[in-house]
Amino acid sequence: MNSYSYLQMYQINTKDVKSYPIEWNKIFGNSNKSIVEIGFGGGEFLVNLAKENNNYNYVGIETSLTSCHKIKKKIFLNNLNNIQIILEDAKFAVREFFSDNSISKVIVNFPCPWPKSKHAKNRLFDEKFLDTLSSVLEVDGEVILTTDVWTYASEVKEKFLSNGCFEVKNISEIQQLPFKTRYEKKWENEGRKKYLLIAQKRCKKEIKRLLEGEINLPHQKIQKMNFDKLQSLVGFKKSSKNKTLVIKDIYAKLDGSEYLVKVFSEDDRYIQSYFVDVIKIKDGWLVKLDDIAKAYRTPSVKEAVNIIAKELEN
Ligand SMILES: C[S@@+](CC[C@H](N)C(=O)[O-])C[C@H]1O[C@@H](n2cnc3c(N)ncnc32)[C@H](O)[C@@H]1O
């Protein structure tokens, strides 16, 4: 193996999964429960945890590609087979990729508290995410949060209490984490204190997932294309309660046999940008989600394919 081959390993390509939620026990080849770390940063905590206790499967979720590269190197150097990582927003990933009652612990070390109200939408622990946690954690499963901001710990505690499905077991100052993280060091150097909050699941809320079961490539066939409509699709916008889609642009193949429609869409605050392909076939046109620039087949993505087909049908 050359020195960078590990970059192809340990990461689930979540857009290529055949059905959701992901069957983690098949991936790990055992029946262990999962421990999930959100925002693992340099990966120090998750890698040491996985080294110490082999009775769990460990899944790390990050939005930073650099962090994913860093942890993969550590997993490889430690020869661990009990960690997989996901490059994705944790609010989406925890809800869509984990089944009910399947996680033992969710660990979050030093998340950004996003204190300004204009950034509130970036905060991890919102009402919907707490509902997700109540669903995916096993009974008595725990959320373990470490933060350097006391007001943040107190706010999150209040959110857990008002959710009604959690008992807050602990909220206190701690001296150190079992394994030091990069941000723990950083805040220690600045003389900041550390606080630990543990919330334990007591009951479960029903949640609605966007991706569930087998996900087929959305497609529609049309007999005859209205070429005037094709041009006017740019700028098309449709919004409903939890879905928005906007057609941004259209690219054509020189011989006119294929068009790529660039779409932005949003489901429940999860934004995706992708292409819908309109291709000439023997007896008409095929409108389908382009399978190269991958997108999750969420309700708004399926709707985009249907709307484009309907608008273009002559
Ligand atoms: C302040 S750093 C803490 C990193 C690490 N836990 C530590 O203690 O050193 C927060 C990390 O969370 C990640 N992050 C932020 N929002 C996220 C989200 N919605 N889903 C997954 N990771 C997220 C960031 O990329 C960043 O690496």
From TrEMBL:
Its EC number is 2.1.1.33. Pathway: tRNA modification; N(7)-methylguanine-tRNA biosynthesis. PANTHER family: 3-DEOXY-D-MANNO-OCTULOSONIC-ACID TRANSFERASE/TRNA GUANINE-N 7 - -METHYLTRANSFERASE (PTHR23417), PENTACOTRIPEPTIDE-REPEAT REGION OF PRORP DOMAIN-CONTAINING PROTEIN (PTHR23417:SF14). GO terms for cellular component: tRNA methyltransferase complex. Catalyzes the formation of N(7)-methylguanine at position 46 (m7G46) in tRNA. The lineage of its organism: Bacteria, Thermotogati, Thermotogota, Thermotogae, Petrotogales. It catalyses: guanosine(46) in tRNA + S-adenosyl-L-methionine = N(7)-methylguanosine(46) in tRNA + S-adenosyl-L-homocysteine. One of its GO terms (molecular function) is tRNA (guanine(46)-N7)-methyltransferase activity. Keywords: Methyltransferase, S-adenosyl-L-methionine, Transferase, tRNA processing. This is tRNA (guanine-N(7)-)-methyltransferase. It is an enzyme of class 2 (transferase). SUPFAM superfamilies: S-adenosyl-L-methionine-dependent methyltransferases (SSF53335). It comes from Petrotoga sibirica. S-adenosyl-L-methionine binds at E37, E62, D89. Substrate binds at K116, D148, T181, R182, Y183, E184. Belongs to the class I-like SAM-binding methyltransferase superfamily. TrmB family. HAMAP family: tRNA_methyltr_TrmB. InterPro entries: SAM-dependent_MTases_sf, tRNA_(Gua-N-7)_MeTrfase_Trmb, tRNA_methyltr_TrmB_bact.
